[in-house]
Amino acid sequence: MTFGSPWPVVDCHAHVGVSSTCTFVAEEELIPWMDRGGIDVQMIFQLNQGACHQTPEWNPYIGNDYIAKIQRMFPDRVLGLGTINPWLQPPRAYTYPIEKRGTKFGGISRNLALEECERIILELDLWGLKMHPREHGYPVNHWTVRHILDKLVALQRQAGRPLVILVHAAADSNYNTPEALADVARDYPDLLFLMAHVGYMWGLKTVAQSVGPCENVLFDLTTCPDSLTELAERYGPGRFVAGSDGPFAKPAIKHAIVESIFQDPGEQALVLGGNLVKRLGIGSHR
């Protein structure tokens, strides 16, 4: 716990694993990296490139199983999020031929996306999902995602603990605009969404009007510009969290962003950890 703070520092944004773009072997590197950055609890998820459901034999450093492995290794310091491919679902009705459009399609018996969603929460004991609509090519408010969110609502009740959905929402594509995130957040008020990058510069001007009224969305300041003062003044420090975007950025950048927006140490402590501790009940479910 950071000296002088009533809350542990909870970093909500870090990628771990090995792919063609990164080599971060969490078994060896994560805890030293956290300690150097003054991080008490780290939220982790797969690298965007090469993300998959189950960890394959050829690469033991990717997949949801790998994230669960790291969480098991460091249960008091790690919160793992799974990754799901929403396209791995069968159609529920015919779209072609035209004469069958709208009638039930029964040609595929399994829904791999929903199966993995259940495995992530009930078997791997992860805390929710990381979604990257731009990188993985789906609108965050698409019907395929809504089926996953429906499943998460049910799993949240079944598991008896809160779940979180971290969404890359930098508005750097039509798939992850503030308006698209607000669309699903309004329809799923029982789920907690973290809006990573808070629209960055492309969607920043519409965040307050579109996402702001959705109290189940927390603004994740990960690698964000410090031009969010107006948003902070309107909604207060209780709506903000902060991540480092590790290992691609250092925790010092996160601290600088938080300190540029919130000058009061108590407010900084909420953003750096208190808000997630309260929302997720960290401690009572660990």
Number of helices: 10
Report the CATH architecture.
Answer: Alpha-Beta Barrel
Distance between the termini: 17 Å
Rg is 19 Å
Widest β-sheet, arrangement of strands: 5-6-7-8-9
Helix content: 25-40%
Which band does the percent of strand residues land in?
A: 5-15%
Domain count: 1
Reading the helices and strands in chain order gives EEHEHEHEHHEHEHEHEHH
Instruction: Determine the CATH superfamily.
Output: Metal-dependent hydrolases
Strand count, sense and barrel status of the largest sheet are: 5 strands, parallel
CATH topology, which one? Answer: TIM Barrel
Number of strands: 9
Flag low-confidence runs: none
Average pLDDT over all residues: 93
Write the layout of secondary structure elements.
Blueprint lengths: L9 E10 L2 E3 L1 H12 L3 E6 L17 H10 L4 E3 L31 H12 L4 E4 L1 H4 L6 H17 L4 E5 L9 H10 L4 E5 L7 H7 L6 E4 L8 H7 L4 E2 L9 H11 L3 H16 L6
Parallel strand pairs: 1-3, 3-4, 5-6, 6-7, 7-8, 8-9
Antiparallel strand pairs: 1-2
Commentary on this structure:
Helices cover 37% and strands 15% of the residues. The chain contains ten helices and nine strands. The strands form two sheets. The chain has a five-stranded parallel sheet with strand order 5-6-7-8-9. Strands 2-1-3-4 form a four-stranded mixed sheet. Helix 6 links the parallel strand 6 and strand 7 (192-196). Helix 3 runs parallel beside helix 5. It is globular. The mean pLDDT is 93.
